Hints:
Blueprint: H1 2-22, H2 29-35, H3 43-51, E1 61-66, E2 70-75, E3 82-89, E4 92-96, H4 103-110, E5 130-134, E6 140-147, E7 162-169, E8 176-182, E9 189-190
Antiparallel strand pairs: 1-2, 2-3, 3-4, 5-6, 6-7, 7-8, 8-9
Amino acid sequence: xxxxxxAFIFFISIYGNLLAQQTPKTYTLQQxxxxxxxxxxxxxxxxxxxxTMENLRExxxxxxxxxxxxxxxxTLNGQFxxxxxxxxxxxxxxxxxxxxxxxxxxxxxxxxxPEKSKFSYMSDLWSFAFVKEKLADNFYLIQxxxxxxxxxxxxxxxxILIYDLEYKTKDFKAFFLVRFKNTHTEKWTEVIE
Length: 193
């Protein structure tokens, strides 16, 4: 009986290793070259981008936000959802943040909502933020969805808001709110600077 158990465990571990080897967690250089227009990316950039995915548990989805300038990947498996965005400059990639962190941005957003519906930077309240386009003034326009803070999420609350936001940045450090709307409406509110 003991030999059968050891043999079974050995078989399962071999099978598990073979299965793990068959499902790569990252993309090959050839897959990245097929996915992204080669004229926009050097081999070095794509290999550096590939390295950012090495420790993932699953193969991420790829996004070419601004061809040749901003690329990203994301996973959506629930427990470990990740989103990373990279700016390409001079044949190098640099990870950048697409969700604001400064209090001035939050203060501006909260100035448009009722006191009971304030927004915060808690990560579970923000969706992935994707660079939507590059504006004529060299700002990057970013789009995200956020939910206002609820101290008791298990209790339904009419004061909780869910907003689609558009904001811009030049350096991915200072962000400026452009417009927002309640996800249940079609009307955008333009933000006055």
